Amino acid sequence: MTTLPQLTARTPGLPCRLDPNTFFSDQARERDAAQRLCQTCPLRTPCARYALEERIPHGVWGGTTVAERRAFWTGKPWRFDDAGRLRLLCGSERAYRAHFAYREKPGAACVGGDCVEAHAMHVEAQRRARLAEEHDKGGTIRGYQIHWALGEPPCDPCRAANARGSASRRRKPSRRLQRPPTPSGTPGNGAAAPAQAFPLAS
Ligand code: SF4
Ligand SMILES: [Zn+2]
Ligand SMILES: [Zn+2]
User: Fold this and answer.
1) pLDDT digits over 95-115, tens only?
2) What global pTM score does this model have?
3) Of 15, 82, 128, 140, which one has the fewest beta carbons inside 10 Å?
C-alpha cells in the first residue's frame, strides 16, 4: 500500500509544503485558512486517514484539526461529508442525531449506513430495557403500554396489572361527586357568592 509520505513526495505544490507554518499555527484564523486549503488537495482523504490512525496530536491534516480528530481516536468509522466536515459514518444513533444538528433528513442524507434503521433499533432496545424493569416489578400498566408500543400483545402479568388499574379507576368516585353541595340561593348558578352576600354575625 502506498504511504502518505510516498504520496506527498510525488505530489508537487502541496499547500502544506509551501507554507507549513499555517498548518501548525496556534492561531484559529490560520488553522481555518489551512483547513480551506486542504479542501481542494488531492490527498485530503489519505492525509486525514493517516493523521487519524497515527493519532497525530498537532497540526491540520487532511482538513481536520486536532480537536476534530481526537473525537475519532477510539476508532469510530468516519467519513467526509459534502461540505468537507469530518463525520461519523452513517448507521448509528449518534450519526442519526448528527443529521439533525446539520439540518439534514436522516435516510435521504445517509452515507455508508442506514441511520433510520439504526434509530429504530435503538428505540426498540430502549423500550425492551424499560419493559424488563416493569417485569421486574411483576408486570405493570406501563409495561402493558410498552408491549403495545413494541407491536406485541401484552404478557399476562402486564395485562392483569392493567385490568386491576382499570377496575380501580371505575370504582373511584369522580371529583365532581366528591365536591360539597353549594348553598342554595347563591347567585349565578352555584358560583361562589361575593363576600358581602354572607356578612359575618357581629
Ligand atoms: S490534505 Fe492538507 S495537510 Fe494533507 S497533504 Fe493536502 S494540503 Fe497537506
Ligand atoms: Zn445517516
Ligand atoms: Zn409484560
Assistant:
1) 999 999 999 999 999 999 999
2) 0.70
3) 82
